[in-house]
Design a protein that fits this description.
- About 45% of the residues lie in helices and about 15% in strands.
- The protein is α/β, with parallel strands linked by helices.
- It folds into two domains: about 200 residues, Isopropylmalate Dehydrogenase (3-Layer(aba) Sandwich), CATH 3.40.718; about 130 residues, 3-Layer(aba) Sandwich (Isopropylmalate Dehydrogenase).
- The radius of gyration is 20 Å and the shape is globular.
- It starts with a helix and ends with a helix.
Length: about 375
């Protein structure tokens, strides 16, 4: 356990929809871990998204941004919902999330996808397609058409997609290192037969792989073929790196491999240690307030935080193991075939952690 991790400032951004419900479970998990491992955690809660618009008219208040800039890590619930979904609105919840990514320089988004054997039955895919699925998608997060210059009128609209060599290189270098630490396989996904930005992605990635990662097994695949392979041959992938929009779409597709978007965590990282961690499920306004949201994606995001920002991989392993054990025992929410509420599922994970800690004391 290092000194930086012993004293950490963590900002919680509940946001909208089911965001406050899953963030509440993240806060309880942090309290349990702080007690078990004698951590000094300065935890602060701030507004973002629709909740921030309602409170002060802007999706990312200055106070929120200032605290996030001063934090060791940020945990986000979700942003958005029907209340703020008017496409003609000049201020929207999603602007807060895009702005915090850009301002903090969080240029890559890591989304792990691992299939639990018990959940194979609830996936829409045939069981034989899901054996040995364990992949990581590394999505470029601050470039492309999401951030390009926009024009919008009654009869014409455009979203400019731009990428520089530097933007591509930094995320490919990160993905290559992750692949080297895993099974040594990297797939870059583009649309180089049509798009100029994709041809630059392929050129830069090819050069980096030859120069820095000649030991890795590398392939480049067009995005339409990759979408097909994710369903027909998902185990062919280990680490995927791709541009912003392709990554957004493909990771939602990949979530169906595990049967529920509620299972999947993510980490948004930059050049430093501070990262933003969030489940990929979004605000799910249709189930907000019912107490049935799956907290495992959020708790898995806490696990990623302890790894990438706080450098405490053993705690990461303990959280992931506790979630895995809960799923194995059927201690989960309705989307996974269980009967537990959000709070009960979160409590089940904390109970597994406490039991593990007691066992270590008894036999250590």
């Amino acid at each position: 356990m290092n000194d930086t991790a012993m004293n950490a400032k963590i900002v919680l951004l509940p946001g909208d929809g089911i965001g406050p419900e899953v963030i509440a479970e993240a806060g309880l998990l942090l309290a349990t871990l702080a007690d078990q491992h004698q951590l000094s955690l300065d935890i602060q809660t701030e507004l973002i998204g629709g909740a921030a618009i309602d409170a002060g008219g802007e999706p990312l208040p200055e106070k929120t941004l200032h605290n996030c800039q001063d934090a060791d890590a940020i945990l986000l619930g979700a942003v958005g919902g029907p209340k703020w979904s008017d496409p003609k609105a000049t201020v929207r919840p999603e602007q807060g999330l895009l702005a915090i990514r850009k301002t903090l320089g969080l240029f890559s988004n890591l989304r792990p996808v691992k299939v639990h054997p018990r959940l194979i039955g609830i996936s829409p895919l045939k069981p034989e397609y899901l054996e040995d699925v364990d992949l990581m998608v590394v999505r470029e997060l601050t470039g492309g058409s999401y951030f390009g210059e926009k024009q919008e009128g009654d009869d014409f609209a455009s979203d400019m997609c731009t990428y520089s060599r530097e933007e591509i290189a930094r995320v490919v270098l990160q993905a290559g290192q992750i692949a080297r630490d895993r099974s040594g396989r990297l797939t870059m996904i583009d649309k180089a037969n049509v798009m100029a930005t994709s041809r630059l992605w392929r050129k830069v990635t090819d050069e980096i792989m030859q120069q820095h990662f000649p030991d890795l097994q590398y392939e480049a695949i067009l995005v339409d073929a990759a979408a097909m392979y994710l369903i027909s041959q998902p185990s062919r992938f280990d680490v995927i790196v791709t541009e912003n929009m392709f990554g957004d779409i493909l990771t939602d597709e990949a979530s169906m491999l595990v049967g529920s978007m509620g299972m999947l965590p993510s980490a948004s990282l930059g050049a430093g240690k501070c990262g933003l961690y969030e489940p990929i499920h979004g605000s799910a306004p249709d189930i907000a307030g019912q107490g049935i949201a799956n907290p495992f994606g959020m708790l898995g995001s806490v696990a990623m935080m302890f790894d990438y920002s706080l450098g405490m991989k053993e705690i990461t392993r303990q959280i992931e193991q506790a979630i895995w054990q809960c799923v194995s025992a059927g201690e989960c929410t309705v989307d996974l075939g269980g009967t537990l509420t959000t709070a009960e599922a979160g409590a089940a994970v904390r109970r597994r952690l406490s039991e593990s800690a007691e066992s270590q004391l008894a036999y250590g």
